[in-house]
Each structure stands twice: as structure tokens, then as C-alpha cells.
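Hi L.,

You mentioned the student needs an example of a multi-chain input paired with its predicted structure. This one should do, with 872 residues in total across all chains.
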Amino acid sequence: MKHAIKAAEAAELIPDGSTLLIGGFMGVGSPHRLIDAIVDKGAKDLTVVANDTAMPGRGIGKLVTAGCLSKVVASHIGLNPETQQKMISGEIEVDLVPQGTLVERIRAAGVGLGGILTPTGIGTLVADGKQTVSVNGEDFLLEEPIPGDFALIAAHQADYVGNLEYSLTAHNFNPIMALAGATVIAEPHTIVPIGVISPDSVKTPGILVDYLLERQPDGS
Amino acid sequence: MKHAIKAAEAAELIPDGSTLLIGGFMGVGSPHRLIDAIVDKGAKDLTVVANDTAMPGRGIGKLVTAGCLSKVVASHIGLNPETQQKMISGEIEVDLVPQGTLVERIRAAGVGLGGILTPTGIGTLVADGKQTVSVNGEDFLLEEPIPGDFALIAAHQADYVGNLEYSLTAHNFNPIMALAGATVIAEPHTIVPIGVISPDSVKTPGILVDYLLERQPDGS
Amino acid sequence: MEAKEIIARRVAQEIEPDTLVNLGIGLPSMVANYLPKEVHVFFQAENGVIGLGARPPEGMEDPDLTDAGGGFVTAVPGAASIDSAMSFGLIRGGHLDMTVLGGLQIDERGYLANWMIPGKMVPGMGGAMDLVAGAKHVVVAMVHTAKGKPKILKECNLPLTAQRRVSLIVTEMAVIEPTEAGLVLKETGPDASVDDVISATEASLIVQGDVPKMRL
Amino acid sequence: MEAKEIIARRVAQEIEPDTLVNLGIGLPSMVANYLPKEVHVFFQAENGVIGLGARPPEGMEDPDLTDAGGGFVTAVPGAASIDSAMSFGLIRGGHLDMTVLGGLQIDERGYLANWMIPGKMVPGMGGAMDLVAGAKHVVVAMVHTAKGKPKILKECNLPLTAQRRVSLIVTEMAVIEPTEAGLVLKETGPDASVDDVISATEASLIVQGDVPKMRL
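Structure written out for the whole complex:
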């Protein structure tokens, strides 16, 4: 059984300088209340690993605007001009990773693999400085695991032991990141009693979840 | 929309000498009607990749007894003395692979990775003759992908486009093998109209499934 | 007909029934509009759905159901939700029959550059590198020139998206197939002659016999 | 008390509340019987469930719900079905708090051999190699000797399961903790003296001060 905590309490758990894996794709399936609480707290020097930085005023974009980040590892920042400006000014270091490589590197960290061997990026800038491994005459890039100090997960529904379900395109990076955070904080839209979620519907087993955010106080 | 075929028709699709990925764990979650049809057809010289060979008279054990197999790639054959006898007599070549390595090697084939880097097996017989790759000073075994000519999948429920759901411990290798067969044949317990399975409940998207076995003719 | 419509109509003809197809955002996403009704395909949105559908009725938008550009969409009957590992597992693993992407440049080998302009625009590659490396067929849908300058070049001077020959290039002026021997001009657009195409293209084109017009 | 009961009772004391625990088939599976009621843990069956429960009521067995030995089980409220990739992802990724396995031999470094006897018994490693390589705590539960011969040896002559020091060895005669310095005798069984343990063990044991008896 988990204790439900408030967003502000969750934000307090996260020291400045931490590496955060944050779910979401252009803000869809991002843990919005957690992000707001981190902005409110005035966090500094965070590294965020996420598919993208959304756009100004939305999701991870709020962390960019508030100056909480010193580094971003993402596949795409094109729809957030602020991230691009801060990259050019040197305020934020940006590491661009192909989307499929990014999710597998996070998965590798979560499932205890030493890295991944991918054809993606061979012969491109992405290969610079990386080990190439030959398997049966074909070359693959060795891409290293990306673990997080925290994984901030948005879910559709949780039960009291922290089992999680996701909805439609709000899955995206969430189920994978839940494997790879040393501490996993889940923000569900609703919380239901044990047994409401069938074992076959669980996408993230509760044993992976360390903290569960209370449901939206106004019930929305 | 898939056409439902009979088990005997499915068995005819499989040439002697093929490599089959077969779902199941001690017969639980194995495609039993497909296996029976392959035995009835008198298939020869098959390579079976599976967690285990169940026991005589059950699941993959029937293929062992019927002399259909020339090679087995599995994590465990301990509960099938016939497999052990045929291994010792040289009738069946047996390649033993740690269970977690086996499932990830199959996944690697299915998701286009060049292999996996795992700590499992380092310093044991499993490492013999294999490449070791060092990542940040830690050694990992490079284990190569295992694709199949066919994946034979048991599912709880399918819809008309081949989306699959699995039940409890009958998931096991099935959802992963469905990614890694050049041709995928699924044997569902029931078949339901499109829309009965919610998008969020689909574990194997129908686009991975090439053939769907008709439901058990007697409805059991 | 507008250039974009020509391109989208022509690319739509490449789509085989009962396949899985990924359409990039922007111009490529227009292709879905020109698919004949009798051709059933599943569209993949790499952000997490197989069976992407049109815009939802007003007031029925679901914030948890968008395309890769963030716009509201529907899911067709028989759709499946997938996480990013499954989405890119399908792409990298060769389960995606076709991807249609935009392009900044293509070179004579058929290699594509479409993810950054150094010092100017660094949006990131998103899913493009995986799509080009992994999809069975890679179709590039783009206007033939940019501000009058050729985009099909002897050699790309922008960073490559992948070291892989794309399957087909469709512009408003031409359909071009990259092959081992070079870029083969297969069709010309409604308003372009073979000579028009050659002069709007920096790369050498292989022209074999009479080049037919696109049938749109 | 029978040897197996002593071992199972003692191992049960090692289990921390609110953890994820994998019990091997055979002797290790008996551990669940001796867990205090107030200690809530989730048991993982590596074939695909988190929240393994006891035998089902007669007539309610589900052929799709078994333990790793193939026996009918139940799922407790809050259980989760997992496929083999997730199951071993949890194991290899360090999410499994404890595994309890049987052993054929253990050497002075704390390395375990438990998956084959060359030329005699080659059952395969199943999940054992991943479990020993990946679980946070690896507890070996085994009888102290086989046919009167020590199983805790200077060096294993059977093939190793992993090149990793196990966390604890529990037999009916002793609790032994492998450390950097060697095998430390922590407790003795109800019917064994320190000298009994030493003479039934080939490996050197480190004995520090008074060694307490197991409290069962």
C-alpha cells in the first residue's frame, strides 16, 4: 500500500542537480502537477531526459522557462524556441538522441542491460565518438544506458498498491521510464481500490512505484 | 481483417527445416492446436526456440516425442527426460540459454537491435566463444538476436484484425515472439469483433499477426 | 493543382492495402486525404497509436489522443495503443511497411538530410533517423526546390539522417527512384518536362526512354 | 524439526516487508509458509506474475495461472501479469529485492553452482543465472551436505551459475555470510555446534566470537 503525497511534497524529494526522466510527448502524458510543483519550488540545475521540451507554457516547457534546467537529453526541441535560444546562449546543454534510441537507452538502464546495439545513427553525426560493434558483418552503434535519479510518470489510473494504467497516446515514454528511475513518482489521474485494475491491464507493476501523487484535489 | 484458418492449414505453411519460436512455459500459454497439427503433419528437422520443452505428452513435448525436432534452443529441459535422452543420443542438438537472455535475444531480433549486452552468464560456460563488450569499465556478454521463420503464438483473445490479449501467466514469451517471427501465426482461445478489445488492452497489435487460427471448433 | 497536392496525391498511390504506414507531420500528413476509400491501411503515429484516425468531432477531443504533431486525432476501430519502445520497436524491427517524410536535401546516392541546419535550425531528429533506418519503404515527399535552388544534390551539405538509400522521392516535378546505379527519373509532374526536372536538379538523373507523366 | 523446515523458517526471517521476492521451486517455495502474517510482500513467479498466491480452491484452477514449476496458483489482490521480458527486466534491472534459490555447491568466494552436473544432469539454467546476476539479495537455501559430503567447498567443481558472491547461505546447520574476507559463520542450527558445521564444510569458515543459535 502506497501513501498518496501532495505535489509539493514530491517536489521537495528532488534535490537540485538531479537527473529526471519525465514522461510525455509534446505535453501529452506529462505529469503536469509535478512539473508545476517543481517550478514553484524554484528547482535548479536539473537534467531532464524526455522526448521533447513541449512548448513554452506547457509541460516540460515550463521548466525551461523557469530556468530549472541545465541540461536536456531529448529527441526533439523544435517546437520550443526557448529551449533553442537557451541552447545557443549556453544556458542549457542539449543532447539530441534519436527517439527510438532514446527510449531503448532508458529501457536498457531499467532492465539491467549494458547498452543497446542499434543501426540508427550509423554514418551520421549521432555516431561521433561512439563505439561501433560488428555483429555478423553488420555495424551497430553502441549506445549507453540512461538511468535517472527520478522518474516522473503520468498515468491514467493507479490502484492503492501503485499499479498503473495508461491511456492511448499518453503511454509514450511513461511505462519505460518507470523502469529506470532510482525513485519513481507517479501522478495518476484517478486512484482506485485494489482489484479495480485487472492484473492483465497493469502496464507498470506497483512494485516499481515509490510515491503516488494524490488525485487532483478538485477531482477534475 | 484476417482470414481465420484451420490448424492443419497453418501446419502446411511450415516447411520442414524451419525455425519456430513457440510461446509457452511448461505448456502454459502454448499454441496446443498448432502443435498437434504439426505432429499430425509429420514435420521434420524443425528448430524450436522456446522457454522449455514442457514434458512428454504436453505442448512442445509432443514435438520432441514425435521426432519433429533436430534442434532446441531453450532455457530449461529438466522436466522432459525425452529431450535429455535425445540430446545425449545426438538426435536433438540443444542450446541452453539463460531465460532472461533468451527473451531479450528474441526481442532484439523483433525490434531491430544488433544483439544485447547482458551481465548474465559472465564468468560461466554460457560466455564460451562469445564477444565481451566493456561499457564504462563493466563487462557484458554480447548475445546475438534470435529471429524465427515462424512465431507460433497462443493468445487469450483476438479481434478480427488480429489484435491480441493474453491472460495471467499465459503471457510469458508470446508477446515478445510475436515481434520476431517472419511469419506470425496466432492461436486465440476466442475471437471477438473489432472494438471489443480496447486499444489500451491490446498487447500485440494485429499488424504483427499474419494468420489467425479459427477458434476451437467445439467452442471449448 | 498546388505543388503540395500533386505530391500528396502521387504519394498516396504508393500505399499498398493492408499495410502499416507512418506519415510525418506537415506535407506528408496530407497523403491520408488522397487514399482511395477501398484501400485499408493502418496509420501509425509514432507517439503511440496504430490506427490513427481523422480529427474528432468538436467537443469530443481527448487530451490523451494526439498525433506526433500534438494535434487532436481519433483512433479507428481496431486501433492499438503502444508505448514508445513498442512504437520504435515496430519501426526499427522492419514492421513498418512505409514511412513518408519531408526532406531538406537528398544526394545522388539517395541519402536524405532532413533534421538540422547547423547554426540555424536544430530541431532534433525526433523519430526521423529510426524511420529512415528501419522502415521497409522510405518515401520522401518534398517540393523540388527551395527558393529556386535544387534540393536534390550531388552531395548533401547538411548532416545526413541515415546512411541508407531511400526508396522513392516524390516532388511536384518528378518521381525519382534512387538505385544502385543512381537516381532514375520515373515520372514527371503535370507541369514539368524532363528538361525542366534536369535543370532544377543538381544531381545527375538517369533518364531511360520516354518518361511518363504522373497520373493523378 | 526436519532440515527443510529449519531452512525455510530461517530464510523467512530474512524477508523484509513490502519487498518483491522470488522463490525458486522445491525447498525455496516452502519459505512462503513461514512468513509472519503481518509481513506483506509480493512474490514474483518468473513465468509471469507479481503477486503469486496460494493454491486455488478445488475446481477453480485456471490453466493460465501457474507458478514456475507448473503448479496451479492464485493471484493476490493487486497482482500484475507480466510477460517474460518484463519479468526478467525486473530481475536483471535490480528491481527484485530477494531471490531464494537451491544450490548444488558454493565456493569460498560465495559463488554458486546450481544448474548442471556435466554428463549426468543437464536441466538447463532456466532463470537461475539471471536471478543470481540481477537480484538485490541472493539467498541460497539448501541442505548442508549431500550424501554426507560437503556442498560448501573451497572451489566448485560444477559449472558456476554466476560470477557473483551470493548474499547469504542458509542450511539446517548454519547461516553463513559470504564476504570479501571469506565465509563468515553467523549462526548455527538447532542441532549443530560450531565444530559440527566446520567438519561438514570443506571451505574455511570465519568464526568471530560466540556464534548464536538460529532463533526459529
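You could point out the following to them. Residues 13 and 35 of chain C are 7 Å apart (CA to CA). The mean pLDDT of chain C is 95.

Best wishes,
N.
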